[in-house]
Each structure stands twice: as structure tokens, then as C-alpha cells.
Amino acid sequence: MQGAEVIANSPSVWEKIITINRGSRDGLEKRMPVVSYHGYLVGRIENTGSNSAQVRLITDQDFVVGGIIARTESREIGLVRGSGRDDQPNIMDNIAWDADIETGDIILSSGLSNNFPAGLKIGEVSKVETDNYGLSQKAEINLFISDITLEEVMVIKNFDSEISGDNETEQNETNEDSETAEAIEEDEEIEEN
Fold first, then answer.
1. By residue range, what is the domain housing residue 77?
2. In sequence order, which residues have a C-beta less than 8 Å from that of residue 98 and are 6 or more positions away?
3. Domain count, the chain
4. Stretch 142-167: mean pLDDT, rounded?
5. Contact between residue 35 and residue 6 where contact means Cβ atoms under 8 Å apart
6. HSE-CB of 87 using CA atoms within 13 angstroms
7. Has residue 169 been placed in a domain?
8. Is 162 helix (H, G, I), strand (E, B) or coil?
9. Residue 37: CB atoms within 10 Å
10. What is the CATH number of the domain that holds 111?
């Protein structure tokens, strides 16, 4: 991992982006995940310069990541999407209509795509409801990064060697369906573009 300091926040109300004081000279590349020192998912690298990089935050309306319920009896998956506002929770959608999800559940990154490793802490479910047709559920997620001041972050440069064994175990225990993984990866790619 590469530690970095936050040196600027985007003034735009439409984009949630921070600038950090590490860049391509430090081995950073576009799309690398960024976490807090608490292990909370912050976002991912959007652009790099030689000595700095821009990080698109998980709160940005164009940000999406595959999420999974940490509770071992559930392990349901969905897509966590940025709300675009700091004062509103993110939404986890594409949750099966009969999924076991409840208020207080902890959401982690699922690792079902190649964009994010499994087991990064995202947030806690604050509300669950069904869609208009009752075909799926969605949940409001209070992000863990909302409770901290972002002054320093860490960039994950290599998934395999830098993610803990606990997260690897969680990923192995997850029943990973290839079609679901492809759908999550496609959604993450679409949001990026």
C-alpha cells in the first residue's frame, strides 16, 4: 500500500473528488482502490500526475461497487451506488427480492469484479425497502467514511499481496456466481465511463 495525504477537495457540487500528494512517480495508476487508515473504502484513483492523483469518492454519483452483507448467515450481494451528496446515504440496489438483509447489517466490497478486492468496509444498512414491483430490494447505506475526517488515505497497489487473509477467507466462502460477477463488473465499467 501507499500512504498519501489529502491536499485538496473538489469545489464542484457535481463531483466528489479529492486530490492526494502521491502520483505515478510513486507507482499509482488509474482505478487503484483507496481506503482510509481504518480500512474504510474511500474511492478509487481517477487520474494521476507525476506527484499527485485525483480520487473519485464513494459518495460520487458516478461511483459504483459490488457490495456483500458481512453477516455469514446472509452473504447477499448488490450494487452500492454513490448518492452524489454528502448529506444523503448511498443506495445498495439489485438485491434479490427474498434476500436476507436488515437494518444494522455491515456492507463490505464483494470482490466479484476485478476493480475492488473483497472485504473492504463500506457502511451499515439504515433502511431496507422493496422496489415498486416487488422484484428486488434496495437499502440505504450509511458510509463509514462519513464519520471521519479524510486527511490521510492509503492506495491499494496490489490486491493479492496487500489484502489480509481474513478477507481472502471471506471471498472463498462466498458463493460467487460468474454471471453476477460479470454484471457487477459491467456496471462498474459503465459508471466509470
1. 64-146+177-192
2. none
3. 1
4. 76
5. no
6. 1
7. no
8. helix
9. 12
10. 2.40.10.350
